[in-house]
Amino acid sequence: MIYIHIPFCKQKCSYCNFHFSTSLNFKDDMLSAMKKEIFLRKDELQNKNLQSLYFGGGTPSILSPDEINSLIDEVLKYFSFSSDIEITLEANPDDLDKNFLRELSKSPVNRLSIGTQSFFDEDLKLMNRAHNASEAESSIKRAQDFGFENLSIDLIYGSPTSNMEIWKENLQKTITLEVPHISSYALTVEPKTALENWISKGKISSPKEEEQNKEFYYLSDFLKDNGFQHYEVSNFAKPDFYSRHNSSYWKYKEYLGIGPSAHSYNGFDVRSWNVANNQQYIKKLNSNVLAKEEEVLSQEEQFNEMIMIGLRTIWGVDLESLNNKFSDRILEHFQREIKPKINDEVLVIENNHLKIPEKHWFMADGIASDLFIV
Ligand code: SF4
Fold this sequence. Notes:
It is found in: Cytoplasm. Probably acts as a heme chaperone, transferring heme to an unknown acceptor. Binds one molecule of heme per monomer, possibly covalently. Binds 1 [4Fe-4S] cluster. The cluster is coordinated with 3 cysteines and an exchangeable S-adenosyl-L-methionine. By secondary structure, this protein is an alpha/beta fold. The chain folds into two domains: 2-249, TIM Barrel; 298-374, Arc Repressor Mutant, subunit A (Orthogonal Bundle). It is built from 14 helices and 15 strands. The strands form three sheets. It has a nine-stranded mixed beta sheet. The structure holds iron/sulfur cluster (SF4). Iron/sulfur cluster (SF4) is lined by residues 9, 12-13, 16, 18, 20, 57-59, 92, 115.
């Protein structure tokens, strides 16, 4: 699978600490540099048929459909791909006008992930999103009218502007719109964001963990009652609408990340990441040099990663793979740490897979990190 990071946004959302620029001055140079990177890395993922290509960001829908197509062409020119390859574009509601969708519907993009976040203006204003509540709804309907059935939307819960009643209405609206995939996250306060600044100055209150906990479990119960499967802590899908791309991450598959700040993984022990700086990225690629650094993961780091990723999913951690992969010393640590948690039913073993029962998923990261080797 290939991930392409588009490092541009119209404006900065108040909670976001991803890598992007709000200036489009160097957009053409960036696209050329990305195409160069695709070419220079064409021998990676050898002998693999690409199952998915994912445009994330930043805001991929800030590009025109022609620009998106030119990147897809470049990938498909150099990599072999499956005939039913999933090609996802993250898109913001304010970009999904008729012209954009008409052109995009003629492209190979066959899945949209829309950054809806909320159907309420108060939430969207606090988040400093570029769209309003009415665009949140109309963009989904328009995308469906143009034939995009494989749709995901992002929703954020636990905002200080929200409460359980508003959250219930958000979810009801989602069901009414017949969206088959939902990614939903608690609002978190990241360092150096406007949100952190407002909270530190007392302008708004912090998100309350207790509220977020209740809203998470309401979300899970409500969506399951409406035919969704809760397949990862933050992800819900109708049958046949799991994200192929993200599922591959969660199954430790190899991936290639193109663009500034994008990460890559060889499926075994090497992780690399591109520089998170647009100018430096462009400059390096202009000189035919990759803008990446890499590290070889120690056994301990591989173990921690396997635990963290696997325990967040419906599949859990495959104990046979774990036993085959790690040394006796690591396995002894593992057995020692899981025992009390199995006694407390915070962890269970089913079909030789270690899992967190769904009723504890809100605490999944904490439970997983208790098992880490530090
Ligand atoms: S659109 Fe996405 S990447 Fe851009 S600032 Fe907002 S949350 Fe961050």
